[in-house]
Specification:
Elements: H1 11-21, E1 26-27, H2 39-49, H3 62-80, E2 90-93, H4 96-107, E3 113-118, H5 122-130, E4 134-139, H6 154-159, E5 160-166, H7 178-191, E6 194-198, E7 224-229, E8 242-246, H8 248-261, H9 267-278, H10 280-304, E9 317-321, H11 331-342, E10 344-345, E11 347-348, E12 359-363, H12 368-383
Helix pairs in contact: 2-9, 3-9, 4-5, 10-12
EC number: 2.6.1.-
InterPro entries: Aminotransferase_I/II_large, LL-DAP_aminotransferase, NHTrfase_class1_PyrdxlP-BS, PyrdxlP-dep_Trfase, PyrdxlP-dep_Trfase_major, PyrdxlP-dep_Trfase_small
Protein name: Aminotransferase
């Protein structure tokens, strides 16, 4: 009997272990959005759940699928200045986490080599390991955690079949510039590898500058696909609505794979997704305000106890060094100590790769009432250091 490939422990293994030991924690470790979706999405969902015709397999309603893909294409083309074709360049997926595995399962057949910056979202690593691919890690720049392409050797570029990126970065919050993405596409064409860019947090942006889609780069559709999600922007993580956009050949392969192994998204979810795309600027604005309020409050209060945290430009994560008062601890030791003393759980940076050592990731996913309690407990921790 075949067994699942053993994978290395990551941030989520660490977090799950801690949660099993103590389920009465304030969880700022997982990027799980709090609160309910906007009423327009709930109303749409309720409306279509009442219909007798919307409870069958989602993929068999081809008219609905076409409308959904068109709404994605229209939004992408208007927002990111891309030229996506709804039929050729877009496929819906039951969440982008599933999409990562499915995409890689189409690409990794014979221990292909995958370039992944360190630190990165550990699901990328887990999926490659499960599929028996070979990971080539390369570091991020120390000043801004942008993937350091210069550190990839000529031999590694030639050997790689896939490059995985994330913008805004998880866990680093780093936003990849248009110029950076142009360089990536040039490298992909030169060395004949495929790029997977994860754009899951694109709408949670605290600046006036639009976050770039890799698919806006000339020729990107020849060598790249992009993951897009409504989970974080619309507070519908549990609905599992995501999209893979870009390279026609890979999108078609993913369509065929999904036809064989599932029956598409629940039809009322598809209707709700169309509503979301029609009102996304408004929905995103509410989400941005919610997370920015929490982030500004937490950063300001931590500054009062001497913990200097730089505000990210995007996403709902804070990526920061372990406070200098606790610098004798590793990131995992610090996270464990904080949990023990305060009941607050963060993510250790080393769980996202070796180059995340000494950092922690904090998810702003608790309401302000709880964030105020977090601050109270944390200030007491700084006052009562017991080590």
């Amino acid at each position: 009997m075949n067994t699942i490939q053993q994978t290395k422990a990551d941030a989520f293994d660490f977090i799950n272990e801690k949660l099993e030991m103590n389920d009465q924690v304030i969880n700022l470790a997982i990027g799980n959005p709090d609160g309910k979706p906007d009423s327009c999405l709930i109303d749409t969902l309720n409306q279509y759940m009442q219909k007798e015709t919307t409870h069958g397999y989602g993929s068999f309603d081809t008219t609905m699928v076409k409308l959904l893909r068109k709404s994605v294409a229209d939004y992408y083309n208007n927002t990111f200045q891309t030229s996506l074709d709804a039929d050729e360049n877009i496929v819906e997926v039951p969440g982008t986490k599933v999409a990562i595995y499915r995409l890689l399962s189409l690409l990794i057949k014979n221990e292909e080599k995958v370039l992944i910056p360190s630190p990165s979202y550990s699901v990328y690593t887990k999926c490659v390991e499960l599929l028996n691919g070979e990971i080539i890690y390369f570091p991020c720049c120390l000043d801004n955690f942008s993937p350091d392409l210069i550190k990839v050797s000529e031999e590694e570029w030639q050997a790689a079949s896939i490059l995985i990126l994330c913008s805004p970065g998880n866990p680093t919050t780093t936003v990849l510039s248009h110029e950076f993405l142009e360089e990536v596409i040039q490298l992909a064409k030169k060395y004949h590898f495929l790029v997977i860019n994860d754009l899951a947090y694109a709408e949670i942006n605290f600046t006036n500058e639009r976050i770039s889609s890799i698919l806006a780069i000339d020729g990107a559709k020849d060598v790249a696909v992009e993951l897009y999600s409504l989970s974080k922007t619309c507070n519908i993580a549990g609905w599992r609505i995501g999209f893979v956009c870009g390279n026609q050949q890979l999108v078609n392969q993913l369509k065929h794979l999904q036809f064989e192994i599932d029956f598409g998204l629940f039809l009322p979810f598809q209707h709700a997704a169309i509503t979301a795309f029609n009102r996304l600027p408004e929905l995103a604005s509410k989400t941005i305000h919610k997370y920015e309020e929490r982030m500004d409050y937490f950063i300001q209060e931590m500054k009062k106890v001497g913990w200097e945290i730089q505000k990210p430009v995007a996403s709902f994560f804070i990526w920061t060094k372990v406070p200098s008062e606790f610098e004798a601890m590793t990131d995992k030791e610090f996270v464990s100590y904080v949990l023990q003393e305060t009941g607050i759980l963060f993510s250790p940076g080393s769980g996202f790769g070796k180059n995340g050592e000494g950092y922690i990731r904090i998810a702003m996913v608790q309401e302000m009432r709880i964030m105020r309690e977090v601050v109270v407990r944390f200030k007491k921790l700084f006052e009562d250091k017991n080590f």
